[in-house]
Protein 1
Amino acid sequence: MEQTPAVELRHVTKRFGKVVANDHVNLTIRRGEILSLLGENGSGKTTLMNMLAGIYFPDEGEILINGTPVTIASPKDAFDNGIGMIHQHFKLVDVFTAAENVTLGTDDAKLDLRQVADHINEICQKYGFVIDPMKKVYDMSVSEKQTVEIIKVLYRGADILILDEPTAVLTPQETDRLFDVMRNMKADGKAMIIITHKLHEVMDVSDRVAVLRKGEYIGDVATKDTNPQKLTDMMVGRAVKLNINRPEPVNTTPRLEVRNLTVYDALGVKRLDNVNFTALGGEILGIAGIAGSGQKELLEAVAGLQPMAEGASITYRSIGSEDKGIQLVGMTPMQIKRAGVSLAFVPEDRLGMGLVGTMGMTDNMLLRSYRKGVSPFADRKAPKKLAEDVLKELEVVTPSVSFPVRRLSGGNVQKVLVGREIAQEPSVLMTAYAVRGLDINTSYTIYNLLTEQKMKNVAVIYVGEDLDVLLELADRILVLCGGQVSGIVDARTTTKEEVGLLMTKFQKGGDKTI
Amino acid sequence: MITFVQISQLLQSAIVFGTVIMFGALGEILTQKSGNLNLGVPGIMYLGGIAGLAAAYAYEMNTANPIGFVSLIISFVAAFAASALGGLIYSFLTITLRANQNVTGLTLTIFGAGLANLFGGMLNAMAGGVGQISIRTTSSAYRLSISNVVSLGPFASIFLSYGFMAYLAIVIAVGLFFFLGKSRTGLNLRAVGENPGTADAAGINVTRYKYVATCVGAGISGLGGLYYTMDYIKGTWTTDSTIEALGWLAVALVIFATWRPLNAIWGAYLFGVLYWLYLYIPGLTRSSQEIFKMLPYVVTIVVLLRVSMRKKREDQPPASLGLSYFREER
């Protein structure tokens, strides 16, 4: 006999402007089941779950809880329907104890922390958590904080739990413990959805896998009937023709030689593990990998923004003086600039690291040139001219060059940033997620700009998340997996499947990173 | 050698002085716990002082036989309401219109001082004579203490020779301690000041909490101004900037007390002792007196240093103090 599903989504669609994040998604979740929601970055997993949690409201479609159609307009509605979501970014008050955080905003008449603590201990015992209800959150490890988040939703009586990449911040041991708890909750009849892109975890914990790709629902399979290879195929899908103009590289010469690059983050976790590669002038080197595999650290290390472990070497050779290598390791960004290194960097965080949001185009151009000249006053004429040129050539839509860039659309912000960086006539151009959030036309403008730079014998490094684009734009693709280079392949001959497999190659064993 | 009488005098003047800034600080603690850094405390104390004075003056002028108790209630309500209105202006600007909190607070200080001195000057002019208004009935109602009724020994008078507001300040401090630490509403309020995004997600109405805490907090701060005009300077008005100086001391006291209402009680009296200490140190000149008046600020800096070095999270200001909250900017 078929039981009524705990949750059923029918034709749920969500758009952000022109971008369709979820396109008529159908999904069912049953009681006593763990469902993995699998998909690449930007495939719409979190958006879909946020609609269940009351953060977003669907544009179309309906949501049924226990067979009854419901409207979930706020997080409170979600609670009332027994849905609890554990977000990637914890929502906890640091100076409060676990008990205070758990009781915050509940309808209990009076504040009796003893009673709350007792209730927490009951929940802990039932599902196998360990937490001290009187411990302050700022004294807790990441895993303990996550435990508090889970107890928070259980305390409110949730029986449908959504966990958004819960293992991203956990050690393997903590992950195992979390999975044990999840199995206990499953045995208790709770419905659970876990968002992850780690395939071995999917195989380990879930009963069923649902796959999303670019906002579309691809299908679901029972975990026991599938394997990582099949899941990867579902996740990345068939190659799509994009017809990006890709001329053959000419006169390739080494521009950037990275050797033995290892980076630890502030917490001592290895983010890059002995990375070696050479970026050639005259080609686009694509960098693929699941989010958080070390892409950010790699670019920042080259730009002089990341401390590196001993033994790293980054040699730079500028256009025209290839015989003279400059060692970048140990230099600050300012020293790198003074040494005559022409390095352009389009960071992922455009308005945080790239541009000053409240300033206009002219002033943002000035940021790159304010040290030029000997006059105590900054030269504003050249930046203004540059701003006007960028505005004209890249067709930036803005009321004027002094209009705050923060208020431009994402695509225009990116044009300003890329325009400024290219105007430096770089020898090496690094871009991180250069087309994220941009519409098709702007994306092609950016592709063409990068290709233009490549033909000027610049070494272009393109960190991307869309494999279709990488396969057609790049000349070679370097694949990062867990901070290691899992392969460097020729983009013209490789397949999507090959790159997809390289992206998850090392995950079975040393899975310390995100 | 300092005598017992001198110590007794010092403590009594310290308690009167401390009561003014304790009101200011308690109101500001409540405000800051909601995440609003209201630097308008001096201005709000001005508003409270002048509103209470004007209300009492109007009552005494228009009544043949003014009753002290009635005048007390009228002026008390007027002072609280005018100060809360100052808090409402601040709330509207910073919470609804998301204006910068520091700028808004400083503006409120300038505005309150100007407005109060304008009306204070007018009241003094209206009073004619020596150009100094005096509301004897109301002021004596405020200053009525047990020592007026019963004769007390020198020791008991250290504790019992004040008007009711000196005790009200302590009651508010203790009440605030229980409210913030033990009640659900207090827990919610602290969550708003620490992490409004989390509070919002937990279903707490962030805007309402901020508005109410800021307006009530301003009302309490304003009582400091009322106590100053009614008790400290005995129902008169002087257009000097003493209230402003006391207002900044109240802000310093919030930091000194590390946002704890109970610390504000003894902190306020300590500030009072330090402020008046120069009267009991022999051989000071007019200029070296000022060094002693500076001591409250010095100890505040020392506390700030100690707190920063110990890095204890409980001693820190509310985490989102001074920041506006937009739900869309998640």
Protein 2
Amino acid sequence: MFADLARVWALWRPRGQWLLIGIAVAILSALSAVALLALAGHGVALGVAAGGGALAILLLRPMMLLRPFLRWAERMASHEAAFRALADTRVWFFRRLAERMPAGLGLTAAGDARARMLADIEALDGLYLRAVLPAVAALAVVLAVAVILAGAPWLALAVAAPLGAALLLPFWLARDAAAAAERVARARGMVHRAALDPLLGLTETLSANAEGRAAARLREATEAMHGAEARLARRAALGGAAGFLLAQLALIGALAWALAAREGAGAAAPVGLAVLGLFMALAAAEVLGLAPRAGAALAQAGAAARRLFTLADTPPPVAEPAIPAAMPTGHTVRFEGVTFAWDPARGAVLQGLDLEWREGERIALLGPSGAGKSTILQLLLKLAAPQAGRITLGGVDLAALPAAAVRARIATLTQDARIFDASIAENLRIAAPEAPDAALWRVLAQVGLADLVRALPQGLDTPCGEGGARFSGGQARRIALARALLPAAPLLVLDEPTSGLDAETERAFLEVLEAATRGRSVLLITHRLTGVERPDRVLRLIGGRLLPATG
Amino acid sequence: MKGRRRDPGRALLAAETRRLGARAWLPVLLGLAVAACGIAQAWLFARLVAGMLGHEAGGWWDLAGAAALMVLAAALTAGQEIAQSAAGRAARAGLRARAFAALLTLGPADTRPAGDKATLVVERVEAMDGYFAKWLPALLLALLVPGAIILAVAAIDWVSALVLLVMGLLVPVGMALAGIGAAAASRRQFEALARLSGRFVDRVRGLPTLVLFNRQEEEARILEAQADELRRRTMKVLRIAFLSTGILEFLAAATLAYLAWRHGVLLGARHPDPVAALWVILLVPSFFQPLRNFSGAYHEAQSARGAAAELAPLLAQPVVSGGLRLAEVPRRVTVTFHDVRLSYAPGRPPALDGLSFSLAAGETLLLAGPSGAGKSSVIALLLGFRRADSGRIAINGQDIGLLRPEELRRLSAHVGQRAHIFAGTIAENIAMAREGATREQVLAAAEAAQVMAFARDLPQGIDTPVGEGGYGLSGGQAQRVALARAFLRDAPLVLLDEPTASLDPGTEDAVIEAIRRLCVGRTAIIATHSAAALRGLPGRLLVLEAGRAVGRRMAGD
């Protein structure tokens, strides 16, 4: 766990200056809290000897103003630093994912990894704000107490020893808290699934009269999560109580020392020191009260860091060539004896597949879902690499070409093409950042959306909503299709372009497809032909090979 | 006050608090007990310190008492924390169960995506935890504990009590002064922060799309610039918002300083009651701690109110639908539609516009027509997902409007356009159609629907895990699982909505064959626009257009 946290810290190093300023101000702020109470106690104690406490009381006045200011400055500095560090983490993580998991997280077994990612990144700011800062501040207080009371070693020991022990508490608590927090997170994932699954299959659930069973499963998942949470809460409560006891022990220790000293020395007892010790222990209790929480934050950040780094350290699916070959001028694509399996245990999806896709040729590729049609697309886009055989573009092996250059040649509509939470124009320009409005209108017209968009009050600037929620499923799909048609790439691959479109729109689109893609190589991947497509060739994917379709 | 009452989020939280009852009060009582321990302990500490200062007070017995109180307070603190988290869990469990039940009752009539609904049931309910587990006890203790301390101090020194009272009252005033200007701006800021997080998640989800268009680096730079801009603006707001913390600290420090001065000077001038004087000073941290806790828990209420406002409309739905129960499921049913009208929204053309037909027991009706003609609406009405605006729908001569929707569904087996496969084994996916189905019945249904034809080749046969995280079934395989459900359900009425829409031709023939056998001896309504299905299935054909019947003939004509 600490290795992961050290790596997080290393990521934050460019912001080191800010992080250190935050720490420094936090230490000053904690010390000012101790000074305030110590001065008050000192003033009262010396008040016995008339006027003796005047200096302490006098010093209280600036401290009275300094303390609130330092507290404010602490929060400002720590948040400034945390915001900067966290933004860095996000961007680093985003770049890393783009490099390591270009095909997205959807292919990983853990379906809720994505859901947890944001929470994990946010848990990392707990590392600084809720673990490092309180721990460092508490350490400073304990050291200050030990130094100030050094005149009476036994008193210093009686006060500082329990406080020092309280400092170690977070580390002791963090040990198992990480596993417990992980159990809670897993249980929460189960609750999400228990809620989502019957809602995804809502008509199935209702028409099978399975509402009661679905509710019972959700209740069971909730109970399991609450059980894990209750254990975590009990641990936290015990940790908190232990911290409270240790801070109080410092108080009792100071008083016991004073009582013993009075019995030993009578009137000559060091009253001032004893009272000082008492009030300092009182002040330290406030600062150290946060220590057990720091343990939980530490554990959470540790577990989050491990999950994030596991994702970020996934090896890239296809290594970039060390010395990339020059991009070929032609763009005939050839698959030569390509064999590929996602998982060796499940057998090969493609088995010695051959395909020649000539320049300007329009191929329709048929096959039932799950046959490996989309795998061909992934291989072509260098999101995966063949385990045997090779793929060439314009006669050059794909493995020798940089992925970005290959992808720039191929405009794609994938099945998971996402509509972003941005305007229609921004969504389209993802494919061609420099495209003028006229080009956007042209592709919108090709997919039969131009009239609809023109009728919207904001036109091209209409926000699409998350995942295109502003539009119906068919309309969102058509925006994605328009986006794929926008760039002037010589190769165009459309994977089930008309899924989610009603029959009429499907036909209308397939009829304009030819005009929209004239002169380009087109690969149309679909599970059935409607009859209006006019491909040059129709191929069927059977048993991992492509055969000419008959009939 | 009136404006507050109307706020549905606040009303929901208040109702939930009443529902929690004793569970909401237990942490407060324990918190009060902790405070009482602290007050008593401060008295013992004061006696001990007074003894040190040369007064006749304090000894080992006082120390032992303080130690005992320490242990008691530690136990009570732990108890309070456990009780708080238990209150939060109880509130969430209740809310989640009711929200989920409401979503099931609304059914497909609530057209929000399933993901959004699941977010309501899981994340939104989780977001309300802080209100019950932190904010509510913190609020009550911030009122009660300082109040009790003021009363206790007043018995000894009314000036000190007055100072505490004034300072205590200044805390909310000061926080409000710092907060009023900042509150609106800070809410906007935090919304902007949430938007940035949203953008990040959105772009990560669509990462493959960005990568394919080589836009990932550009997007990373935009994320960077936006985060920077947002931080700059947020810090501007926090500069003022954090003043409330400073004000609280200032008031605490000023109170302490004043009381130390007052009693310190008095002590020198032969204070009449030195123990009481020290006690008052030692109580200052205990006086401000609950206020500090409340300030720390303040934001919990805000996020909970946001979540509550989203949940409130859903929970306002009546969960139990009215209507009769079914004594028993008849073996054979007739179906009659008479002049049935249905529209989904006032502005849109009606889905069904005076549709009439009748179906004898054991007869199959093929509903054809373009999409949007009303085929799915007929099935939605027979499943009780919708209610007709006018006209009469009868099964065996009885108006179906009299039945509870879930009772109506007991009469039918339904297969939709794209079958959902639940996380679980294939056998479990079939068995869900009928509670208490035996293994033999499930296997027979799987055989009848030709599920076994592909399940045999899977690693664990019919016990292969499928759905989320399991083995992926193709559209045709999923559709056959759905048909197996219909076989297992063995209901007198079969409702099929485009059962072959997502199939390739080879699979379609096999599925149609299974459908034909499913319909034997049952009353069936099949909506389809597939030519193969229209040819392959016997029965009467009813062509719909714009919610009306435009043609009737026997299939195969």
Protein 3
Amino acid sequence: MKNWWKYLSVALLLYVIVVSLNTPLGPGLTAVSPENLNTGENSEIKVIGYNTHFRNNPPDMQHPGVWLESDGFHLTCNNVEVIDDQELHFSVEVPDELPSKSLHVFVSYDEGTFMLPNAFRAEQSVKNDQLKNEAPESFSGSVTAFYFPNREILRESIRNLMFHVPMWFTMMLLMTISVVYSIKYLSGLNPDHDLIARQAVNVGLLFGILGLLTGSLWARFTWGQWWVSDTKLNGAAITTLIYFAYTILRGSINEEQNKARVAAVYNVFAYVILIVLLMVLPRLTDSLHPGNGGNPAFSSYDLDNALRTVFYPAVLGWMGISLWILQLRNRTERIKQQIENA
Amino acid sequence: MLIREIGVLIRKEFDLEIRNKVAIGGILLYVVTTVFLCYLSFRELQDTTVWNTLFWVILLFSALNTISKSFQTESRYRLLYLYTLVSPAAVILSKMIYNILLMGITALVTLLFYSLFLGTSPLEGANAGMYLVALLLGCAGFAGIFTMIAAIAAKTGNQLGIMAILGFPLILPLLLTLIGLSGIALRGLPWEYGTTELLILTGLNILIAALSYILFPYLWRE
Amino acid sequence: MKTLLFLILALLYSYDSFAGGIETSMHAAGKMNVTLGVIAIIFIGIVVYLFLIDRKITRLEKEIKERQS
């Protein structure tokens, strides 16, 4: 079993694809209508859920509990009517005074308590910060099924975590391999080390481009734009630029030994500054990515357990595949050199 | 030993520069023309952020222009001759120090013409000490990175084009931190607000010098 | 190569006219299609890369054959 790691990474990726596409998304609320509430009036409201089972209720309750919240002030809703597992109707009396113009909606039933933040806007409300009351009784949920968290904006596309994010991990792994071999080349001038460094950059660029393309698609349908000015995104773009520059530098030197040495020097120089850049950049700008304020996406600190069991194998699997591709390129390149030298 | 070699090499650079007055005149003319061009396009800049960013961008391009010739003027044989006399580390460090001085002069001239043409209003009420430190650290950083990149690009045919491609992505952490620090200085805030930026800039400058010191000898091992 | 270029242009053009369609389909079914799109991009990217390696190896094989004969 010389190639055990190839089989392992294929098995890991197979597991990742099957599990990440089969695991259902947890319940969540997706929409309400109407979205504007008139104060001082009784409004009829419809709430749409996703993967919810509104008909399952604890034995002592006939309806899910529904309430609105606005900065610590809770409004209990009446006449809750379950249309089907995904749809609820209810009515609510909105007072003239509210602590804030935006209201969140909560639905609490057998599966747990779910919220849609800023679901409503109150028209012509008088601002009153003093209003506060206790939250109604909520259920923590009796269902312990294995599912991915249902996040605002992300929804099913949370599965991209297993495909888009490992691209960056893989790229950085390959660039690190490249630098290690560049240093080795500079200390021993072994042409084979230069060959590995060059091929690692080449494969790393493939994963960098895939990361940019997939990130762009994902950003378009979550944040609304193909490209958003974001620390991680800009860092990734600069990394790709630096390594494209590396290939161009190689292309513009003719003499083989000279080329290898100059490219290795640039590689080490650029890599160190790149690492500094990736550490400095987040301090200077805000990020839409995890861990930065006001972000609806998952944060790396509360990466859900269900996501974690698939995410780590995904990273290892993609890294394994990239090393396999790198090995193929190295072998091809060595054969080419043998032919040329023969 | 190293320090004496560096001193001699810097003297040599100065002598060459003074003998060839066209080069330094070219740099000054470049700066003045660019600033004048910006003046004609913008007339006057009231917005401090734009004023600050544009200044650093102009300085970035003049740094590229100034430093790109630092290895071009040396013929291959003269360099080889130099290596038999002094250590490669002395060559790169002397070039770096000389370029820092050159950049300092360029930056001051740029600042003079820039504020003359595009308005001094952002400079009023600024933390002048911090702004000057930002300028100094900026010149050192630009000179450091571009000197090393120039040494790399000198090995290729297309010096200026390659330098821009190689250098701009690498100059970015420096540029962003500089714009941040000088922005803080222009708003007249006290020193505590710029501690992070000052630390990053100082660290980066030391890192660049150390990297060049280690890597440059490999560039010349023929 | 020409076919590929044509395909890309056709795709871009069709995106323009069906942009509304893509928009709704991407947001439908809880944005599941975004995940599928991402997987498709990665799959196509890696397959194209493999084709390029394949072409390189074919060229080498040809060269070996020529040298032997």
